[in-house]
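COURSE: Structural Biology Practicum
ASSIGNMENT: Worksheet 4, Part C
STUDENT ID: 0417
INSTRUCTIONS: Below are two proteins. For each, the amino acid sequence is given first, followed by its structure token string. Answer the questions at the end about the second protein only.

PROTEIN I
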Amino acid sequence: MRTSPFTAVYDACVLYPAPLRDFLMWLGLSGRFRARWSVQIHDEWKRNLLKNRPDLTAGQLDRTSALMDSAIPGALVTGHEVLVEGLTLPDPDDRHVLAAAIRCHASVIVTFNDRDFPVEALEPFGLEAQHPDLFVENLFDLDQAAVVAAAQRQRRQLKHPPIDVDRYLDILLRLGLPQTVKGLVAFRSLL
């Protein structure tokens, strides 16, 4: 696997929807960047998912987070907790995400909540908040083959039930990834 020093921290909100979490994991496995998260980020997406999906169990989600941690060795950021108190963000509950990004020398926080990570709070640390659609679009510009391969692998693993290409692209569109879908449409025969 190729490895890049470019590092991205996934915020809990992008790990909450399973299809986006899976796509981001396949992208993380591409080696084009280092995907990172923390126990607190895991706890946040799992807590919110359990609150909204009573059909799921904590054990199922713990298994998912453990699989994530083992799929991308070194993805779990630790030692960032000491930084939290010294950080300022509009929502103090998001400081752990910024602290994890600082600790692992990330360049990007992938989040739907860019207003929770204002430029003036991130800039001193060389960080930027990016919507997942922009993040994938930037990866697409860097390495189309890696993004197409990630989408292909994700779609092909969906077997219960199988998902055709149009349905797969519609799922990504409903997740708020219009630019990603626009890029992938040109490669639909490969998906």
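PROTEIN II
(use this one for the questions)
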Amino acid sequence: MKIENRATVNLNYQKLMAHIHSVLEIVPKEHMRGVSKLVLVDYITDSRVDPQMRRELPGLYHPKMPGSPQAWMEIALKPLTPEGSFWKRLSARLALRANVTATLLSLIAQHYYLTLSHGVRKDQYEHAIRSYVDRHLSLYARTRKGLRAWLIRPFLPWLERLARWLQKKQKSR
């Protein structure tokens, strides 16, 4: 898949591209069949999207249409790197890779469930996409190596139990 950079955000694009390629390695190639490119932009500029929503939308999937030969994806970097106070910018920079990973996986899930997967009804898409992203985020976290992953890995079962408990508590409200 071709990755185009049309963004003007001040980032280290070599590291960002390497990160995107590492995320794409965990996704089965069959799930990406039919996607021609991934475009990194400042903001989503599609006229079909509400103007207020365009400023906040981190990603957009463009399905295969009669006028376009292939499906493609767009990731907006400005909503993922907001401006403001020093602490807000710092927290956004620290969370950038995680946000790009989640956005990319959600776009891939949209492509997979809209074009390649059969038996999923329209009212089930949102739940199916969320579960796809969660499943692949945990797979990505297990494949990572490094000090942070090594330190966090022993606590993951406990954190997952805590997350399930919190979800159950939230649903009971």
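ANSWER KEY EXCERPT:
Q1: The domain at 2-145 is CATH 3.40.390 (Collagenase (Catalytic Domain)).
Q2: Strands lie at 2-5, 35-41, 59-62, 71-76.
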